[in-house]
Amino acid sequence: MQLPGIIEITPDQSDLLAKGARILGTSFLEELWFATWLSALDSLGADRARKEAIMHAYFQTELELHAPYHAVYATDDLAAVAGGYLASEFAGAPGHQTLEEQAFAHVLPALLTEAEAQALDAASQHLEPVSDFFWAADHARADHAAGATATDDHIYFFAWAVDPDNRGSGAFRRLITPFFDRADELGVNCYLECYSDELQSLYEHVGFELVRTLDAPGVGIIERCMVRRPRQANAS
Fold first, then answer.
1. Position 236 confidence tier, pLDDT thresholds 50, 70, 90
2. Are the beta carbons of 152 and 141 closer than 8 angstroms?
3. pLDDT for residue 232 is more than 90
4. 20: which residues sit within 8 A by CB, 6+ positions away?
5. Would you place residue 168 in the very low, low, confident or very high pLDDT band (cuts 50, 70, 90)?
6. CA atoms in the 13 A half-sphere facing the CB of 134
7. Distance between CA atoms of 60 and 41, rounded to whole angstroms?
8. pLDDT number for residue 101
9. CB-based contact 84:155 (threshold 8 Å)
10. Residue 6 CB contacts under 8 Å (≥ 6 apart), including other chains
11. InterPro entries of this UniProt entry (predicted)?
């Protein structure tokens, strides 16, 4: 996507990908899905530094895998970074879920001890009922069929974060506004998932609405599936 005001990070920009991975990895330590997943390492004595190393390595590979498909963006000062793509531009990719699985498969065997790998694999299976990342395309098709959007194309965000040192600086708004402007221009929905009341409220404040939740006995967290519809559709 051409997004005035922010930059696309390309596969050859290894330093920027690494910086983005550090921002995402550190920020997502506080995100409930990853926090719950990583809590499986507590009984093995993993401290914050160990968890942060795992997160940085994972996001480094995830961004490297997504970058060839126009899916990694940042503010020009690297205060905030986003993983997100326009579905029509992402059509040549193996699929977001496949790329995530490749990221885990590439990073974890080399980085983890056998005990850590077993613990995190069990945690992933435990979280599977609240880990639906395929719903957005179906929702976009349904909205288009109902006449709510001009097309079933859509923007999907798989991650975004602000550098902890830049929180409260307006970096988040600078990051997301170009995406929203492009979505409004194209008449397409934006999608994301979150797992906390705080994030749900934040995303509602910037125009998203909750359209579905996923819960399961004993899991302890709820997946909230959210959509931001284009302003043209809202106006109608």
1. very low
2. yes
3. no
4. 9, 59, 63, 72, 74, 78, 81
5. confident
6. 5
7. 21
8. 87
9. yes
10. 73, 74, 75, 76, 174, 175, 178
11. Acyl_CoA_acyltransferase, GNAT_dom, Trichothecene_AcTrans
